[in-house]
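Methods — Computational structure assignment.
A single polypeptide chain was analysed. Its primary sequence is given first, followed by the predicted tertiary structure written as structure tokens.
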Amino acid sequence: PPEDYFGIVEAVGWIIISIWWKCPRDKVECDNKADLTIAGWVIFGILMASHLLRDLVNGSKMIVLCAEHGYSLPSRLRFFLGGLFLNTVTAFTLFSSTIYNKAIATSY
């Protein structure tokens, strides 16, 4: 073929991201084929905030609720673990969605 393709592979946990570049044989420079724009990231941020902000707020409220003395110790422990789990799942969802958004914005 007249053009060569090569990928830079970056391992993040068990997720592998491929960022592809197009390198024509008759040019010295390679072209980045990632279609990432500021507008796309802004829309992505608005969508993620609208879907995940509620979970983040509720998880934080549960962690704050565990510090109140009006509840029994098992209830306070449930509030803390539930809030911690909800915030962890929310952060992982944001992380994996960001990685996925970056991966699908690459044209081959």
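Note: Strands lie at 3-12, 15-24, 31-32.
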